Amino acid sequence: MIEKTQTPGKIGILTLKIEGMTCTSCARTVERALRKVPGVAQASVDFANGKAILEADPAIPFETLAQAVDRAGYKAFPSDEEEEEKKHLQKERRRLILAWILTLPLTVKMLFSMVGGIELLPDPMSHWVDIGFSALVIFWIGFPVIRSTGFAIRNLSFNMDSLIGIGTLAAFSTAFLPYLGVPVADFAVVGAMIIAINYIGNYLKALSTGRASLAIKKLLGYRAVIAHRITPEGGLEDVPVADLSVGDTVLVKPGEKIPSDGVILEGNTSVDEALATGESIPVDKKAGDPVIGSTINQTGA
Fold first, then answer.
1. What is the rounded CA–CA span in Å between residue 109 and residue 119?
2. pLDDT tens-digit series, residues 142-171
3. What is the pLDDT of residues 108-117, one digit of tens each?
4. Which of 8, 10, 12 is nearest to 60 (CA)?
């Protein structure tokens, strides 16, 4: 038998999908923004899977949380994980394709000029084509990066987008500095290239996190669903694992999954902990030993 030893929760657990994060600094910024919302006791944001887990009053309107995240420079959505991941991946793919459709001609033109000394377009047409196409890439397709940079500067909380955004704007500004009497080469195209290359990374990141989330969902499928809870009268009742409370005592039969983290109260057994630790050899357990939820009880009860 085991006694459930999870920390009691006085408030509910809320999960949000966060869009626009590019590094762990972004996650910390979102955490700080959510913790300032009245009714939120704790907030934890995972950059890898783009989720925020809150210990908060369930009565807090989603709009209140979304506004706090928006003020920090990001977007929050209800956690409909599978659908949101598909939309996010499609969005990143679309941005990547559009960025390179506009950037690739500029890159080819620049290489012809630098390497072969061949000008594909005459001046000043070439100059204004560079500015026009680069502006579309930077301020239209790359708007999320520029927007994030602005919020980072306002909040004095810099992130990966800040580096990319400032570098991009600096490169783009060189197209206009000569008009102010500053003798500098025109690197506007480089700004567009920075955004386009950045979107390669964003797409690969979205692809990998989607696969990681799928793997985690498969692992969650191994969780125990039903527990044999011992009643105060000494009987047994089958209840969903989610209905267990701290202090409950449950019976785990041979071959069944242990429904929750806990401590063995009576009996001896061996437990297959491969799912949690990777150890293929069952571990012997006795009264007083801790056990891990969803591992498999081999012999004792």
1. 7
2. 999 999 899 888 888 888 889 999 999 999
3. 998 888 887 7
4. 12
The letter for the amino acid at 180 is: L
Token pair in block for residue 200:
């390669």
- Spans of all domains in the chain: 11-79, 83-219, 226-297
Beta pairing, strands 226-230 & 51-56: unpaired
- Evaluate whether 11-79 and 226-297 have a shared fold: no
Lowest mean pLDDT among 54-63, 82-91, 225-234: 82-91
- With H, G, I as helix, E, B as strand and everything else as coil, classify residue 165: helix
Contacts 24+ apart (CB under 8 A), 220-225: 222/257, 222/275, 222/294, 223/257, 223/293, 223/294, 224/256, 224/257, 224/258, 224/259, 224/260, 224/293, 224/294
Which top CATH class is 11-79?
alpha beta
Percent of the chain with pLDDT over 90: 27
DSSP line for 216-246: HHHHHTTS--EEEEEPTTS-EEEEEGGG--T
Given a contact cutoff of 8 angstroms between Cβ atoms, the answer to whether 263 and 289 are in contact is: yes
Three-state SS sequence of 18-65? EECCCCHHHHHHHHHHHHCCCCEEEEEEECCCCEEEEEECCCCCHHHH
Assess whether pLDDT exceeds 60 at residue 258: yes
- Beta strand 249-251 with 12-19 is unpaired
- Domain 226-297 indexed as CATH 3.40.50.880: no
Dihedral of CA atoms 91, 92, 94, 96 in degrees, nearest 10, equals 160
Look at 8-17, 145-154, 235-244, 259-268 and tell me which has the smallest mean pLDDT. Answer: 8-17
**CB under 8 Å to 20, separation ≥6 — which residues?**
26, 73, 74, 75, 144, 148
